[in-house]
Amino acid sequence: MTRNTSNAASNTNQSDRAGQEHHGYGSVKRNLKTRHISMIALGGCIGTGLFMTSGSTISTAGPGGGLLAYIAMGVMVYFLMTSLGELATHLPVSGSFAAYSARYVDPALGFAMGWDYWLNWTISGAVDISTAALLIQYWLPHTPGWIWSLLVLVIVFLINALTVSAFGETEFWLSLIKVATIIVFLVIGMAMICGIMFQPAVGLKNFTYKDAPFVGGFPAIMSVFLIAGYSFQGTEVVGVTAGESENPGKAVPKAINDVFWRILLFYVLSIFVIAALIPYTSPNLLGASDGNIAMSPFTLVFQRAGLASAASVMNAVVLTSILSAVNTGAYASSRMLYGLAKDHYAPAIFARTTKRGIPLAALVATVCMSLATFASSIFGQSFYMWLVTATGLTGFIAWIGIALSHFRFRRAFKLQGHDLSELKYHSKLYPFGPVLAMVLCVIVIAGQDIPSLLSLNWSHMAMTYFSVVLVLVLYLGFKFVNHTKIVRLKDMDVSGAESAR
């Protein structure tokens, strides 16, 4: 992959050229508004993990352990997103962190990151459309689930095949529903805790109930870290949207800066309210992790407040969350495949776009892969579950790639004589931020299956750490075939202009 030097870019206004994708046939279009990107970032923070499995964190590690895990992972994700924000505003491209890994670390790493991330999203899409069918069957129990799964996939395909603004507008309204639900939940929950409108006041007695606030010791808290980490996955999609933002220099920093407050408001306060209102010994908290809407901690709190139709309301909210996840997955994976093709890491057909700027071939390939994975769940449940488990660590691997890319970019930027004032957005507490992200992600990945590591259970380890093995195979394979080398800091292209194709 040929690279432009800093001098070659000096005759052009760098802020205008940074990652510019030309409008027209053969490229994506910058039609995502600032409000779209802010809500996409918000939607990435709020998923079914908060609505359904957040209760299991309290049940496993107690109210204190659950809060500690979400606060720690939230701080890490915030620093990670500021790293991504610095990279995405300097070089806003659809390939996002795969492109950054290739440019700032090693082309082989960019290849491995991009394909692993694409595979993860396509498999996640299959899981989500299966879940959507189960949610719809809550109201229509006697209808075949595969029809609803297929309908969801078709709707998402049509939304993404129209224009990028159609995708952005859909995400805006779906995210708005989730935000409104959480705000109502927090208002009602705090009123119940304080005894406002709801008598008697619940107070904070559940934080000292039996073994609370910390239950199960370090192993329990470690397992909760994993759940919290999964809950935050998807926040990195904001980096992918930079390639189609009307004004990435404004929209991306705004979305990134808001992440901290979203984490504080939507996750930490929600966990606090759940922990205060429901004792950690309640069996209902674990029931939600099995997909039982009636056992969702949100449903339980609404029911205690007197909302008789709480289960049905939460089912609708979680359904919108699933639709948002499928929609975002189709967008992120198609743009990742498009970015890989632009960098010559995938067949050239995936780099072609329609006149409306949609990489249709990449979108079709993504949807077909999700459909094939979903079909495997019908004909072979064990293989399907293996796929789901095997790609579970991809999000953490992507985060390591982001942190490593930013760490090396900043070092090269200063080594080559650039001043930080040239950057539109500065990450927070460099190098502490990316180093913390790398260390925590490695710890979480290693701690995914400690029993198998200690007992050397190779079959379980192969399934659990398949994503790690896949990235290594892709990386070493590409490196062997193309003889790539780790990019030296002094030779790194930090100009902010897209590489020549």
User: Which CATH first-tier class would you pick?
Assistant: Mainly Alpha
Shape: globular
CATH topology: Amino acid/polyamine transporter I
Question: What is the residue-averaged pLDDT?
Answer: 83
What is the helix/strand order?
HHHHHHHHHHHHHHHHHHHH
Number of strands: 0
Strand content: under 5%
List the helices and strands and how they pair.
Elements (H helix, E strand, L loop, with lengths): L13 H4 L16 H12 L2 H43 L5 H9 L2 H30 L8 H18 L1 H31 L22 H16 L4 H5 L6 H30 L6 H4 L9 H8 L5 H33 L17 H20 L1 H10 L3 H22 L16 H15 L3 H6 L2 H7 L1 H17 L19
Q: Would you give an account of this structure?
A:
It is a single chain. The chain is mainly α. The protein has a single domain, classed as Amino acid/polyamine transporter I (Up-down Bundle), CATH 1.20.1740. Helix content is 68%, strand content 0%. The chain contains 20 helices and no strands. It has helices at 14-17, 34-45, 48-90, 96-104, 107-136, 145-162, 164-194, 217-232, 237-241, 248-277, 284-287, 297-304, 310-342, 360-379, 381-390, 394-415, 432-446, 450-455, 458-464, 466-482. Helix 4 packs antiparallel against helix 5. The model is unreliable at 1-25 (pLDDT under 50).
